[in-house]
Design goal:
Blueprint lengths: L5 H14 L21 H14 L3 H4 L6 H13 L2 H16 L6 E10 L8 E2 L7 E9 L7 E6 L8 H5 L13 E4 L6 H9 L3 E4 L4
Parallel strand pairs: 1-5, 5-6
Antiparallel strand pairs: 1-3, 2-3, 3-4
C-alpha cells in the first residue's frame, strides 16, 4: 500500500530530487569495480514518506531493496547537505504565496515526545518515568501552520525555549507591524515578557491560577 497517492508523491519527488546534488550511482574509482550499486535516491525518499505517513520504525519499512541502515545514512547525508532545510523554506514560501501565512498572530507551546534512541538533546522525561524524551517547542501561525520549532531535553523547563523558538521568525522575511504571541500559563513570567519586548512583540499570556 503506497504511503501517498502518486499524484502527490510525483510532484514532491520532482521538487525534492531537484535539490539533490548529482552524483554517480557507482564508485568507479575502486580498482576491481566491486562496490555495490548505490540505492537510488527515489527508493530512499519513498521509504522516508512511509516513515512519516505510518509512524513506524526504520526496521519495519526496510526490505530487500533498501535496508534500515541505508535509510538512516541517506537521511543524515541529506541533512548535512541542507536539503530538508531548503525544502521546508520552499514549502513555507509556496504556502505563503498561494494561501498566506497569518503572522500577526503566533502561538508558542511545548510538547513532550518519546526518544527511545536518545540523541544529542534528549533528556529524562518527567512524564514517562524518567525515560529518554524530547521537548518540542513549536510555534504556529494564526491558522495553525508550523513555521518553526526547536528541540530540547524533556526535562527542560518551558521558560528558556520561547527565545530560540521565536528566533525562527527571522526565516520568514518581513513580519506585520503588530504581532501578538499567544502563550499558556506556563509562560506567565517576567522573563517571557522580556523576551517578547526585546523582539517588539505583543503578548497574550494566560495567568497562572
Amino acid at each position: 500500500m503506497p504511503a501517498l497517492p502518486s499524484w502527490l508523491t510525483e510532484p514532491l519527488w520532482d521538487q525534492f530530487g531537484a535539490l539533490l546534488p548529482g552524483r554517480a550511482e557507482y564508485h568507479p574509482d575502486h580498482p576491481l569495480g566491486c562496490h555495490r550499486r548505490r540505492i537510488s535516491n527515489w527508493i530512499v525518499f519513498d521509504r522516508m514518506l512511509q516513515l512519516l505517513r505510518f509512524g513506524c520504525s526504520y526496521e519495519a519499512i526496510a526490505d530487500t531493496t533498501c535496508s534500515a541502515t541505508t535509510i538512516r545514512s541517506r537521511r543524515d547525508e541529506w541533512i548535512r547537505l541542507g536539503v530538508f532545510a531548503r525544502l521546508k523554506q520552499i514549502a513555507l514560501d509556496s504556502y505563503d504565496r498561494i494561501v498566506g501565512l497569518v503572522l500577526d498572530r503566533i502561538a508558542v507551546d511545548g510538547s513532550i515526545t518519546k526518544a527511545p534512541g536518545g540523541g544529542e538533546v534528549a533528556g529524562r522525561s518527567p512524564v514517562d518515568r524518567g525515560k529518554q524524551g524530547l521537548k518540542r517547542s513549536g510555534m504556529t501561525d494564526g491558522y495553525g501552520i508550523p513555521p518553526g520549532r526547536v528541540l530540547a531535553g524533556a526535562n527542560r523547563h518551558d521558560s528558556p525555549l520561547p527565545a530560540p523558538t521565536l528566533d525562527r521568525l527571522d526565516d520568514l522575511g518581513p513580519l506585520p507591524v503588530d504581532v501578538t504571541v499567544h502563550l499558556d500559563a506556563g509562560y506567565d513570567s517576567g522573563k517571557t515578557r522580556a523576551v517578547l519586548d526585546e523582539r517588539g512583540l505583543h503578548s497574550r499570556i494566560a495567568h497562572k491560577g
